[in-house]
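User: Can you help me understand a structure? I only have the sequence.
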Amino acid sequence: MNKKEVLKLCPNYYKIINFEFDSDDVLANKIVDIYQEYVLESNVSSEEDKELIKSVDKILNKYVDDYIFHNQLNREITQIRLSEKDNIIKEFIKSIIRIFDNYEEFTTRTIYISKWI
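Assistant: Let's start by predicting it. Here is the structure, written out as tokens:
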């Protein structure tokens, strides 16, 4: 994939890859490296890959911006178990998306609108 296609699908690409994490946060740097490798080597002719790229871009933008999600992902990512499938990086990206979906589901509250009497 060329850089123009990456920028179309990933508006947060440079923000993510240029973000400076703490020097002792090795896991964050590795996650960003995997993101960069996946995005640059993906097949853009596949609709599934396009959707995964867009999703992981949004998720890692949240990872960079939200300290609570950052810590949650770091905790849960160490518990991911992958089998020897044909594309381990793609399975890892799907695991990150599942973690994010779970995070969104449990952190979003239902807001009730009360009626004024």
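Now, to help you interpret it: Residues 11 and 57 are 8 Å apart (CA to CA). The helical segments are 3-9, 13-18, 26-41, 47-65, 67-77, 88-107. Let me know which part you'd like to focus on.
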